[in-house]
Amino acid sequence: MVKAVIFDMFETLVSLFEGRTYFSENIAADLGVDENVFRQLWHATEIHRTVGQYTLEDVLERTLQVLQIYSPDKVDMIMQKRHECLKDTFSSVPMEVKELLGTLKKRGIAVGLISNCFSDEFEMIQNSELYPMFDAVKLSYEQGVCKPDPAIYYRIMAELGVEPEECIYVGDGGSNELLAAKEVGMKPVQALWFRDKMFEPHIPSPVLEEYEHAEKPLDVLKYI
What we know:
Blueprint: E1 4-7, H1 24-31, H2 35-44, H3 46-50, H4 56-66, H5 72-90, H6 95-106, E2 110-115, H7 119-126, E3 136-139, H8 140-143, H9 150-160, E4 167-171, H10 177-184, E5 187-191, E6 212-214
Parallel strand pairs: 1-2, 1-4, 2-3, 4-5, 5-6
Helix pairs in contact: 1-2, 4-5, 5-7
């Protein structure tokens, strides 16, 4: 019996590809630096940003210092552009996502969230219209651990008071989240409804044929 559905956030409940986008190549262009050089420095800090060891401002300051182009104004400019794009993301929650979460709540099924996120995303998630709909939330920036580490899955199950076999995990597949969910004993379902918005090199995961799929949010209900 399914007692909980646990969701990923990005490319599952909301999409970073909705509206304006601001990825590493855009930051590099704004700074006037080589895209490949910037991307290498940027991705080298990803885990540290994700588990809360550094804020995004910390990483930008250090990266720009390495590139010998640091100024507070440049950091502020990048943070402002990221904030504007995240506003696009969180102001564009599909109605069907809201309907899905509401239906689960009405059925008495617990709703959880596990999300890998940076400091600015952490704040946006907490202030989003979706946040009150979750019965338990585990955000990597606050937890100090990120997917696919099984610890973050066990933490949310403990808070919800459910066993792995009572959980469905829904995500786009990035960060090996579906494999991790399967390995802890949950039923993984790959969310595919944002795939038409994604573009390379930022597609988090290919379509994974080994898992059940949901072409649209309400398809998740088929697996309960």
